[in-house]
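Holo model, zinc ion. Inputs:
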Amino acid sequence: MLTDSHCHLDGLDLSSYDGDVHKAIAAARRKGVKYILSPGVTFEAFPEILKIVETDNDLFASVGVHPTEENVYQPTLTELITLGQNKKVVAVGETGLDFYYGKDEAKRKQQTSLFKLHIKAAQELNKPLIIHARDADQEIIEILTNEDAKTIGGVLHCFTGSLAMAEAAIDLGFYISFSGIITFRNAENLRNIAKKIPLEKMLIETDAPYLAPVPLRGKPNEPAYLPYIAEFMANLLNVSYESFTNQITENFLRFCKG
Ligand SMILES: [Zn+2]
Ligand SMILES: [Zn+2]
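Output:
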């Protein structure tokens, strides 16, 4: 049984599914994918995500505004908490810092205050955080520590950071989620890090429609491609496919409980 902990169901390329996201979900189900979390990226897109996940007990959402979404509605704490109370919402995010895009000081300030707002909302809701991290490892760990995010924990999604960052995050009660990047030829460093992460602290994700795994790299990604990542990871870690995927699903359900 597989779990896709990060898949943008509202952003999939549905051209081979008659434009119907539920057909794409059904295709994933035929490959053994049971649970899917579709993360929030903007408030504008949130109702569409809710509409998709509300139809199915095994689909979940999170609420948040992505750090690179600077030109969308910027919510207040109360608004985040209000949407976060929905029972289909199991986490707060995507939030975090993306200093690859946010190069200038003003953008970094804006991202930082939005990040702290999400941490507060997650603490009020007692739900875990979904963290997007790019070129800001140290800053993220510093903020999570100072804001006492250990009380709620969460996940570093689409992990590409250092071993030191992974270990610091695990100490703060976070999971480390690996995407199709782990299958890329040049990801040797990431593979070496993955081997050092305790299995019970791992999640996996497609991050569809982005980052399709090898051998489909470059194509639009979809949740039905998750088995390529799971198989690759099980081989890398030298465990059976079944025990790996069951452990990942157990981790995900534990993550959802916060
Ligand atoms: Zn992200
Ligand atoms: Zn994402």
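The chain has a mean pLDDT of 96. The chain has one domain: 2-257.
Archived with the compound record.
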